[in-house]
Amino acid sequence: MVAVSFGCSVDESGLAGTSEKLQRDGGATGGFATTGSGGNIGSGGNIGTGGTTATGGVTGSGGVEAGTGGVPATGGAPGTGGVIGTGGAASTGGTPGTGGMTSTGGAPGTGGMINTGGAPGTGGMPGTGGATATGGMSGLGGMPGTGGGGGMKCGPGTCSGCCTSDGQCVRTVTAKQCGSAGGACTACGPCEICSSSGFNTNSCAIDPNSQWTIVAVSAQVTMTPPGGGTWDPPHGDEGGSAPDLFCEYENPANDVSATTAGVTDTVVDVFTANWDQTITPVGVTVSASALMASKPAWRIWVGDEDCSSPNNCGTAGQVACSYQQPISAASLMSGGMTISNYQSCVALQLSFVCQAPSVAAP
Question: Are 193 and 247 contained in the same domain?
Fold first, then answer.
């Protein structure tokens, strides 16, 4: 919750007296949530019967479901090995050399001196074998394939949008994947959009067209009303002299009807009331742009329920505090706020519930 404290700012509407109060059942008296002992003793006239208790406002449904991650890149096809080289054709050995012809000795001389034999012939040189052929060079394997989506890692230097958890750069941001300058992608909440207020500043922000309901959680008032004295006469309009607290929403302010106003039960004789009830009319929402307007048309006020005549109670209330200030985007994003020390309210706690955009309202 966001706590809001106000000093001298005062909304004068209704503080001088009473304001008209919406009747929850349209009958003679409003619905009451009593505390303490004993019922109220009616004095004079016919005793009004209790109205039926109003049910709470429509509970808002959840926002858009969280987005799914991007498709991871698949690895590139692995490279195939090079063609294996085949061995060279084997060389055949050279033709072996044949030995030289053996010299025959000279014919013996006839007569005279006997001839000596010629020198014996030497054998021819043996043929040498051919050089042995060497095998071909082996083929080299192909280069390994690289993974899909290659490139530099997603980050501030490589991505103008946001980076997913698996390292992908999202350049067109959405409410499901919001961010900038290579930061991590963030999923925005219900009734939020991914907004850019400047260069590389994409961030989640309240959608001005989103629709909301308002819940009055609780309030505490001062011991004395505006102007001093006591909240009620000694015997009280209803119960004793302590205030009978309720909280009402009107849009536009001071327009009290079933379609323009909503109100909580009245809690009798208390200075602190715990309602936790929706105060926007049943089936009606209010836009974020209207809630955040600099001069809101609506108002929310806490009052002490009074009788406009002896036999007509529940149609008027003495104003404890009347709030008509802009609701901040931070309060909507956090889901609530507490208004502290404002007029005669020590505290007023409100919560805001995001509704489906299809529900139209002013």
Answer: no
